[in-house]
Design brief:
The structure holds 2 protein chains of 2 kinds. Chain A is of the alpha/beta class. Chain A contains 13 helices and 15 strands. In chain A, the strands form 3 sheets. Chain A has a 7-stranded mixed sheet with strand order 3-2-4-5-7-6-12, with helices on both faces. In chain A, strands 9-11-10-13-14-15 form a 6-stranded mixed sheet, sandwiched between helices. Chain B has one domain: Pyruvate-ferredoxin Oxidoreductase, domain 3 (3-Layer(aba) Sandwich), CATH 3.40.920. The chains are: A alpha/beta, B alpha/beta.
């Protein structure tokens, strides 16, 4: 293990290197670019024994990864924003084919207006594509998840592609202290890839077939079951990770002072640390505040969310996306979980950080005041008058 | 001391023009602080806006003994470092210490002036002042040994740049340490 001062993208690339994928196919896009630059350098200098394929588009990047995965090797790709949308057609292909591809998405705003900075509209737009979706809060978690993601995705009862989401710039381009594990320890966590079914001339089988009305539902049902099975595999993998590396992760969510909280703010990604600081500040002024960080949007942590907020008077969701004319996508998922569990507390939705706009601790502190004052509805941070 | 977090966190804001190396300076400080023996934690990041050569820009370094979870931009730094004195406005009251690359002097007790261009021209033979300002700021921050700067330089810069830049940083460190004595 070495202690390094590196960017989130550098950390992620180290995690991928330690997982030893055999094929990396990618097309560069800001703010993902330096991830694939590092990996191409590693493939060139021999520190990573992989075929690096610089393809002509994001659609081709994932198509290529699907082909390589079908041929029976571990694969990686990375993208962002418009690139993720351009490869969107291939996402359900990878999920439906049960190819355990790992992809890093550098969360970035969606055009128009054109913007290269961070928000989460890109990945949340593709929540229904059948991929596991994780959101990290710092560079270390990005590296650690790059390792864990392969063990989770490749578990034979999961066999589902895995998208690691890192907030563009706030994580990808921020330099920080990261412990980079050694290869021997990484190998203890991740066994060699054993594909569930792959192209094998000695044992021909049909891959990527069609299924008509009679049988189609069974494939969808099994994909759903695989995603649900991931809930336990994530926990088992984190336990194994902790035994090897000594760092603890908390499953699909991470709670902070939720046990006795009246007002719980639910959020995800790099803003979570600031929210915990704002909760401390609110408590110092008499508001019993807590924060629930969602680490996985798929599989969705319905049970964990209900358990964390069941004693609260109100919840708010702070997210970097908006589904125009509706609510934020995270809020819709949280609301569904709470309603299904029979919880009926006040709820509000805060939209912030769009196009990379900075969120201050004062902005988050005000959310707790709004919650304590009984405010509800969908509000945009930085715009005083809420939409009607 | 950060009131919210209840532990010491130091915010440094670097102010320069695109191409002057303000973000590199932010990384140099973070690497020097966190990778030296017994080092703490640091974050270094640029202001996320359009990058244009010559246009005003900011970069940020946060230093703390413990892990840092506040990733927001500092509104006003405990230390503000101007790589270019044409960007300096009269510092607002209570805006922390100010370190300026300038050949003129200031009566403001918060302002420390250093002719970094002069040191860069003499030692580096180029107008890039980031390692000069790193050395000056390290002396101003306190708690840095001159050798800690070498750790940052070796971590961030290409090897062919090490010797000259270590000399430049050391010269500025000694100059500011002398004025504080």
């Amino acid at each position: 293990m070495t202690r390094e001062f590196i960017s989130g993208n550098d950390a992620l690339a180290h995690g991928v290197r330690l997982a030893s994928p055999k094929v990396i196919s990618a097309y560069p896009i800001t703010p993902q670019t330096t991830v694939v630059e590092r990996l191409s350098e590693m493939a060139e200098d021999g520190s990573l024994d992989a075929e690096f394929i610089h393809v002509e588009s994001e659609h081709s990047a994932l198509s290529c990864a699907i082909g390589a995965s079908a041929a029976g090797v571990r694969t990686f790709t990375a993208t962002s924003s418009q690139g993720l949308l351009y490869m969107a057609e291939c996402l359900p292909y990878a999920a439906g084919g049960r190819f355990p591809i790992v992809m890093m998405n550098a969360n970035r705003s969606i055009a128009l207006p054109w913007n290269i900075y961070g928000d989460q509209r890109d990945s949340l737009m593709l929540l229904d594509s059948g991929w596991i979706q994780a959101y990290v809060q710092d560079a270390q978690e990005g590296l650690d998840l790059a390792l864990m993601s392969y063990r989770i995705a490749e578990h034979p009862e999961v066999s589902t592609p895995f998208m690691i989401n890192m907030d563009g710039f706030h994580l990808t381009h921020t330099y920080e202290v990261v412990d980079v594990p050694d290869k021997e320890s990484a190998d203890r966590l991740i066994p060699p890839f054993r594909p569930v079914g792959c192209i094998d001339p000695g044992s021909p089988q049909n891959i990527g077939f069609s299924a008509g009305p009679e049988h189609n539902v069974f494939f969808k049902y099994k994909a759903h079951c695989g995603m649900l099975r991931a809930r336990d595999v994530i926990k088992e993998t984190e336990q194994a990770f902790s035994r090897i590396f000594g760092r603890e992760y908390s499953g699909l969510t991470e709670g902070y002072r939720c046990e006795d909280a009246d007002h719980v703010l639910i959020t995800l990604g790099s803003i979570s640390g600031l929210c915990r600081g704002a909760a401390d500040a609110a408590r110092a002024e008499g508001i019993r505040a807590g924060v629930l960080r969602i680490r996985y949007m798929r599989p969705f942590p319905a049970e964990e969310t209900v358990a964390a907020v069941s004693g609260a008077k109100s919840i708010a969701v702070l997210e970097k996306d908006i589904s125009f004319g509706g609510t934020g996508t995270v809020f819709a998922n949280v609301g569904s979980a709470l309603f299904s569990a029979g919880l009926n507390m006040r709820a509000s939705n805060y939209i912030g950080g769009l196009g990379g706009r900075d969120i201050s601790i004062g902005d988050v502190r005000k959310i707790f005041s709004d919650m304590a004052a009984g405010k509800t509805g969908v509000r945009f941070i930085g715009i005083e008058e809420g939409p009607e | 001391m950060d009131a919210v977090w209840g532990r010491t966190m130091t915010d440094v804001v670097w102010i320069g023009r695109g191409g002057q190396g303000a973000f590199t300076a932010a990384r140099l400080l973070g690497a020097a602080y966190s990778l030296r023996d017994g080092g703490g934690y640091a974050l270094a990041f640029p202001s996320f806006g359009p990058e244009r050569r010559g246009a005003p820009m900011k970069a940020f370094t946060k230093l703390s003994a413990g892990p840092i979870s506040d990733r927001s931009e500092a509104r006003s730094g405990d230390f503000s470092v101007y790589l270019d004195d044409t960007l300096l406005r009269t510092p607002a009251s209570g805006a922390g210490k100010v370190l300026v690359n300038t050949s003129s002097t200031s009566d403001d007790p918060r302002v420390v002036s250093l002719d970094a261009d002069g040191i860069a021209a003499e030692v580096l033979g180029s107008p890039i002042v980031n390692t000069v300002m790193l050395g000056a700021l390290a002396a101003l921050l306190g708690g840095f040994a001159a050798e800690d700067l070498d750790v940052g330089i070796e971590n961030v810069l290409a090897e062919r740049l090490w010797d000259k830049n270590k000399k430049a940083a050391r010269k500025a460190y000694d100059a500011v340490a002398e004025t504080l004595r």
